Amino acid sequence: MEKKNLMYSGKYFQGTREELLKRVNSVMSEKRFRHVLGVEKAAFHLAEKYGEELEKTSIAALVHDYAKEKSDDEMIALIRESAIDNKILPFGNNIWHGIAGVEVITRELAIDNEEILQAVRVHTTASSQMSLLDKIIFVADYIEENRTFPLVEEARKIAEENLDFAVKFELIHTLEHLIAQNAKIYPQTIEAYNTWVAGMK
Amino acid sequence: MEKKNLMYSGKYFQGTREELLKRVNSVMSEKRFRHVLGVEKAAFHLAEKYGEELEKTSIAALVHDYAKEKSDDEMIALIRESAIDNKILPFGNNIWHGIAGVEVITRELAIDNEEILQAVRVHTTASSQMSLLDKIIFVADYIEENRTFPLVEEARKIAEENLDFAVKFELIHTLEHLIAQNAKIYPQTIEAYNTWVAGMK
Q1: Model-level ipTM above the cut of 0.95
Q2: Which residues contact B186 (CB under 8 A, 6 or more apart)?
Q3: Which among B179, B182, B200 has the least Cβ separation from residue A184?
Q4: Which CATH number characterizes residue B108's domain?
Q5: What is the domain count for chain A?
Q6: Is there a smaller number of Cβ atoms within 10 Å at the N or the C end of chain B?
C-alpha cells in the first residue's frame, strides 16, 4: 500500500492527512518537519510489522512534536493553567512538549483519541506501562532515517527483531546519554527503565 | 587525636565505642566489618576536613550497614509492619538496609538521633537534600580504603578537594554502573542526581 495516500477515516482527525501535514508543517522548522515525516515512515514500518492500525500510527507520528517549538513562556502558562502536574516545570521543553503538548494538540487540532494522545505524552519519557502504539512512536522517534548518532544502526536492527528489546535499548542509551551530559532525568523515565530494563514488576 | 580512643558522650549511644563495635561485629561477616571500619576511618578524615562532629560521624559510620545481612524475610516483615513506604519492597536489600535499616538500629541499638539515622537512611540512595553528615557517610562508603573499583582513586582525590563534587562524581558513576548492569534504580537517587549533578532547584 502507498502510505502517502493513506485515507483518514475522520474518526481521529477532522480532515485529510494532507491537511494535517499542512497544520504540522506550519508550526515547525523544515528540519523538524523532515524528522516528523521520518518518524511517520519508521512508525508505519513498525506498525505493519507488529500489527498496529496505520491511521492512528500516522496521526500520532505526525503530531508527536507539534508543541516542540512553542515558546517556554507559552508552555509554562499552559502547564500552570491546566491540570498537568507542576512538577514537570523544572524539566524544560524536552519534557513539556510531550506531556503538555497533548493539551496543545487537543486544543489546536481537536484530536482527542486517548491512545494517540498517550503515545504523544510518553514519546520522550517512556512509561512503565506502554501500549503497542506508545512503543512504536517511542522507537520510531529514535531510529527514523534522519537520525545519525553512533548507535542508531544497532537500534534499527533490534527494532526489526523485537520491539520490547528496542524500547529497552533506547532507554539504556538515552539514560547513558543524559548522564554523560549531566542532564536532568525525568522520574517517569526511571520507572520505565525499572520496568523494561531491570524487569521490575 | 587518636580516633580509636574516641570517647562517646552517651548522647547518641548508651555505651562506649568498643561496645558499639562489638554489637556491629556480631551482626556481620569479617569482610563487612573491615569495610565498616574503613568507612569510619574515611569518614573521620572527611569530618575533620569539612567540620563535622566526630562522635556522630563515628556512630553513623559504624551502624550504616548494620542491617545489611538481615534476611530478606526479616526485612520484608519489618517494612510491612512499620510506617516505611511499601514502594521500596521491589528494590531489594541494597535499598532496604538503609531506609529500613534505621528501624533495626533504633530497635536493637536504641539510637534515635535523627541526624545519625538520616545519614544511614540515605547512605546508598543519596537524596536531593543532604546534610554534611549525610554527604560524609555517602562518600566515605564509596572511597574507604578497602574499595578497589577502577574509579576509586579519582573519587578519593575529588573528596579531598570538594565534598559536593565527590557526591556528584559518586552519583554519576553509581548510576552508570547500575545501568550497565541493567539493575534497578531507586527513584530518590534520580532526585539526588537531578539536584547534585543536573543542578535542578
Answers
A1: no
A2: B88, B91, B95, B125
A3: B200
A4: 1.10.3210.10
A5: 1
A6: C
